[in-house]
Amino acid sequence: MKRALLFLVLCLSTPLRAETSAPAKIYFIVRSDSPISKLSAQEIADYFLKRRREWPHGKSVRFFDRRDDNPERNVFLKRVLKKSLREVELYWIGRMQFTGDSAPAQIASDAMVANMVARFDGAIGYVSSDFKGAKNIKVIEVEGLSP
Amino acid sequence: MSPGGFSQNTSILTRLRNITVTVAVFFLFSFVGLYISSQRFLTGLREMYLRNQLSTYANQITEALTSSEQIVDRLQFATNVADLRFSFHASQRQLRVILNKALRRSRDSSEVNAFFRDTEAALFNYENAIDEIFDLARSARAKGEPISVRRLGQEVLVGKQFENDVKESLRKAQITLKLMSDDAFEAVYDRRHEPLIVGTILALLFFSIAMVFGLSLTRGLSQSIRGLLTATDEVSQGNLDFVADIHDRDEIGKLTFHFNEMVRNLKEGREELKNAVFARDEFLSIASHELRTPISILSLQLEMLERKIHSSKGSPPTIEEVLKALKLSNSQTRRLVELVEDLLDVSQIKTGRLNYRREEVELGKLTHDVVQSLNEQRGKNLVQVHTRELVFGFWDRSRIEQVILNLVSNAFKYADDRPIQVYVTVQGEDALWMVEDQGPGIPKHRQKDIFNRFTRATSSRNISGLGLGLYISKEIIEGHEGKIWVESDGVKGSRFYFRLPTQMSPKISTKFFRELNEIV
To answer: Chain A residue with minimal CA distance to B172?
Structure first.
């Protein structure tokens, strides 16, 4: 019963949100020699929030975030993390307080993200759908994105 | 081995010493046990301390890294890049000093050491990245251009990544250290009751050992003492037949043993006394009888003679009659003198006043003379003397003569007119003298007693004598440092021997020569 109600609420709320934030598409990229080819949204959230610090093959995760004013960042927060900007800020303040972990580096441009991902082993980042022509990177599939 | 089979191993002192040694060994083991127990504690504490120290190093490295980071952050506003670079490297040098300490300290734990090595590698990359930034800034300054924001941003981002790597490996090291420290603490904390338990067990052990030893010792002792007490009670009430039990072969056991010996000696002494009194009474009756016989004969003869002289009817006694009476009286008087001399000798022996006048004596000749006079006196020729060689020695002639006379006349007395053989020989350093008769012999159990005072082998009254002869002979022979003994199968015949040293012992010879000098 509850589940059905929730589903109904979601169905009703989706068109509203779609109207307000004009979603752009983002791609998640890794270095071309990485064995990763497919991730769920939940996994990406875990890697981003440093709940998981290493890839399944043992390399440590280097997450490259985008600046707060980039539209890709909003898409990332909304569709993958499912958190507001404020929530994420508070989360990192808390992490800093209790474990000393700081937020991932924030990069302004698609090109720089591609550059960094290509340079570091175990790196992951996201670029806008209209970014093209970068060497040594590959796009991975992401499942379970919020619409 | 002391009398009664008492060895020193069972003495109370030895037992006490054993207990002391046991207790000492026990204490030693206790100390070792407690030391090992506390040693484990101290090892755990040291482990904890080491982990905390390494953790502190990791913190210090993180702090130093932050200060380096701040130096790099100043680059955007700085005018002198070289100064900034110098202070960055100074900060990094400090950091490396701490890191080297951590590497050295963490050598025993490969896991932590690996993390610190990762840190070192990441630090190398970080320094290279930052150096590149400084190079960029310098070359831009040299050209007089502003620094490319895009290039700088990229380099800073790279440097940031390596800094994160350093922090990440330090974080891992700290987590591992924390876990290890927790384990060490848990190990110490889990064993917090160990010294108490060890101490309690040791105390119980010690207590039981002390109880066992103490109880066994005191029980044994009290038993022995109680046994001895009972024995003294019994004996003091006159029960001389009581024999105390010996519980342990220790000092008290020995005491009990000696007490039993003393009681037995007392008992024997009493019996000896009784026997002595009995023997004395018997001797008195024999002596009075022996003395009365010659006296009554003497008085009878004298009375007869007197009556004959006083008689008015008859003629006076003839010379022959008087001579006969006198001869009889004379022999009885001699007999009395002999008896009295024997008694005198005995009393002299008893008071130790019997002296020997030593001179050179030939035993064979002496024996011949004595036997000849005896044969003449008895009018029979029963005794034969066999001498093979001359036997010289320094003895008291008259006393040895007395011994020979006594032994041979004893043989006469008991021999029932059967022949008697006397042998005189030398055996080694000693003269050996022997008389053999064919009389009734002496039973084995009596052979020891016949040399005592007032005893005779046969108590039959028909053989006269005081029973002192053999006693006197024994004293004389022993006074000459010789030995007298008898051999007899108790059925037929007996052999009396004596052995006299032909050489004088040093003690006697000095005495002899001193006396000789006085005479000369």
So the answer is: A53
Q: How many CA atoms lie within 13 A of B96 on its CB side?
A: 13
Rounded CA separation B260/A6 (Å): 113
Residues of B within an 8 Å Cβ radius of A: 62, 150, 153-154, 157-158, 160-161, 164-165, 167-168, 171
Structure tokens at B382: 């029963």
**CA nearest B476: which of B412, B404, B424, B426?**
B404
CB contact under 8 A, A105 and B158: no
Give the pair of three-digit tokens for residue A54.
């290493």
Tell me the three state secondary structure of residue B430: strand
A97: enclosing H helix or E strand: helix A85-98
Paired tokens of A89:
């800020």
Unique residue bearing structure tokens 């109600």: A5
Its sign, for the CA torsion A32, A38, A40, A41, is positive
B379 DSSP 8-state letter: T
Amino acid code (one letter) for B102: A
Contact status, residue A128 vs residue A72, Cβ threshold 8 Å: yes
| Contact (Cβ atoms closer than 8 angstroms) between residue B407 and residue B399 | no
Option in B157, B168, B171 nearest A116 (CB) = B157
In 3D space, the residue among B187, B188, B186, B174 whose CA is nearest the CA of residue B51 turns out to be B174
What is the spatial distance between Cα B223 and Cα B252, in angstroms, rounded to a whole number? 10
The residues, any chain, with a CB within 8 Å of residue B1's CB and separated by 6 or more, are B7
| CB-based contact, A112 to chain B, within 8 Å | yes
Query: How high is the ipTM of this complex?
Result: 0.76
* B150 neighbourhood in chain A, CB within 8 Å: 112
Beta bridge partners of B314: none
Tokens representing B440? 């009734």
Contact predicate A127/B166, CB 8 Å: no
State which H helix or E strand residue A142 sits in.
Answer: strand A137-143
Q: What is the 8-class DSSP label of residue B20?
A: H
**Strand, helix or coil for residue A64:** strand
Helical (H) or strand (E) element with B414: helix B397-415
Query: What digits encode the pLDDT tens for the residues B231-282?
Result: 889 888 888 888 888 877 777 888 888 888 999 999 999 998 998 888 778 7
| DSSP of B451-503 | GSTT--S---TTS---S-HHHHHHHHHHHTT-EEEEEE-SSS-EEEEEEEESS
**Distance between CA atoms of residues B322 and B316, nearest Å:** 10
Instruction: Give the length of chain A.
Output: 147
pLDDT in tens, B420-432: 889 998 888 888 9
Residue B284 CA, distance from chain mean position: 52
- Report CA Rg, chain A: 16
Place of tokens 């109904």: A8
| Mean pLDDT on A98-122 | 88
Q: Which helix (H) or strand (E) holds B423?
A: strand B420-427
> Cβ of B165 and A112 within 8 Å?
no
